[in-house]
Amino acid sequence: MQSPHFLFGDELPYEDVDPGIKRQILGHNDELLLVKAVFEADAVGAQHEHYHSQVTYIESGVFDVTIDGVTKRQKAGDSYFIPPISDMALSVSRLGFCWICFHQSEKIFSKIIKREQPMKSNFRWVIVGLVALATVINYIDRGALGFLWPEISNDLGLTKTDYAIIINVFTFAYAFGQTLFGKIFDIIGTRLGFVLSIVVWSAATMLHAFANSLASFAVFRGLLGLSEAGNWPGATKANAEWFPINERALAQGIFNSGAAIGGIVSAPIIGILFVFLGSWQATFLAIGALGFLWLVPWLILYKSEPESHPWLSAEEREYILTGQKNTETKTEASYAPGAVEMLKRRESWGVIMASFFIDPIWWLFVGWLPLYLSETYGFGVVEIAQYAAIPYIGAMFGAWFGGLLAQNRIRSGWSVNKVRKFVITLGGVIMLVSLLMTIKAATPLIAVLLMAAILFGFQTSVGNIQTLPSDFYDGKSVGTLAGYAGTAAKLAVVGLNFLIPVITVNSYAPAFAIGAALAILSVLSVWVLCTRIEPLSPPAQ
């Protein structure tokens, strides 16, 4: 991130910082900042901490400066130095030169006190909130087929094998769409990438209302899978652009909680719509309209990336842009390899394989939980809606827990490498134990509570796995690697979907046992292939 090579003072805007104070940013990159600040008479600079080293030269005027409780009066020709704070939450070290100018009378006295000041805006959380909301809609749309299947199968005479075919068409398309949209997002950007993805998937959802055979369901489901795939690489890219490293796992957790919340609310929403509208066709039309409504706030709020977004405060922009460095190496991910070079790195394969092994665990429940409850306990649409939301409550809390835990450990001084591996492993252990216990679940309530623990562990791990592309590479390549990982993950899900009807003839115990093995393999992929989780450099020539 840097300004153009040539800048002209009469063309650069001033920003209002505090009453009577404005500043003009004269040039910057990730290591250097030059600012001109103008104080009116009797203006007082806000109390704040410095996230970077600062040297200030006084061009004119007189003012008082307080640094760490010591106050000195300074005048034109004087200067002062402020070192960066040592708090790990703000551990980014950045060299800055500020040029402070006073153009009023010599009676001017201004105070600049080194103390923590909350940022004037938290707009980045609005962005991740919108992405999470899109994910909620994403899961309502994709979950409708499973909840409505008893009615659909009765109307059209479709079988369990037909269901497996339909969801595998979705999953194949979803797998291809991950790679496709990963590249699309890197080319056209986050804003337009999400518009393209959600318009197509919302239209595809509405087309389900007109399906009348296995073939038509498969076609519309394939279109849905292709377009919904954009949500994941898009979210990963938005995370890398809008959040410093210490907040990325939490941001990813908030995004992932959208999937969990979608799972929670989809059951009652679909159940209510089905009862109110009276048919599965009308239900598909209603839920498909939600995506088009989402576009309104997205297009209004997401005007550009953080470097140029007009609604970001200067403090928040600086916080985002200066927080891109690894806390251990003090370096920022700036390596943006092409596809071929990226796939030569073992770290890339660590991300891909971890996703390949962990993702089927999630989809085991997304795709098959309604049928599990129907076949094992004889549940209908209403009963499925009552029970199916419980596992997703665990997933929601797991997404938040994994993000908050990672953020807390980084702020306490742990390296990114240690934090990612610890949180991913913890989630893997939770999944392993809970999956094995689910095999012996005696009642539907015990079963869904154990599933809640499984999805808690899944979300604890996966949020940190999904941040790995931005830990290794520059944002220009993040979408591409996230897309490759997503494609590999969905191909694994396809294999599982073909296997489930075969191994669950008598019970779902074999499926849970396979899930336990996958949890172990996902954790091992990170430990074995991602030797050090830190920004990578181009290979030596």
Q: How would you sum up this structure, described in words?
A:
This protein is an alpha/beta fold and 541 residues long. It has 2 domains: 15-113, Jelly Rolls (Sandwich); 123-529, Up-down Bundle (Growth Hormone, Chain: A). Helices cover 62% and strands 10% of the residues. The protein contains 17 helices and 9 strands. The strands form 2 sheets. The chain has a 6-stranded mixed beta sheet with strand order 1-2-3-8-4-7, with no helix packed on it. A 3-stranded mixed beta sheet has the order 6-5-9, with no helix packed on it. Helix 1 (123-156) runs parallel beside helix 3 (190-207), helix 5 (231-242) runs antiparallel to helix 16 and helix 6 runs antiparallel to helix 12. The protein starts with 14 loop residues before the first strand and ends in a 12-residue tail after the last helix. The model is unreliable at 85-119 (pLDDT under 50).
List the helices and strands and how they pair.
Blueprint (H helix, E strand, L loop, with lengths): L14 E4 L2 E8 L4 E7 L13 E6 L3 E6 L2 E6 L3 E4 L12 E8 L8 E3 L9 H34 L3 H29 L1 H18 L6 H15 L2 H12 L2 H33 L2 H22 L12 H9 L16 H4 L3 H32 L3 H8 L1 H22 L4 H23 L5 H22 L2 H5 L2 H29 L5 H21 L12
Parallel strand pairs: 3-8, 4-8, 5-9
Antiparallel strand pairs: 1-2, 2-3, 4-7, 5-6
Helix pairs in contact: 1-3, 1-5, 1-6, 1-7, 2-3, 2-4, 2-5, 2-16, 3-4, 3-5, 3-7, 5-6, 5-16, 6-7, 6-11, 6-12, 6-14, 10-11, 10-14, 10-16, 10-17, 12-13, 12-14, 13-14, 13-17
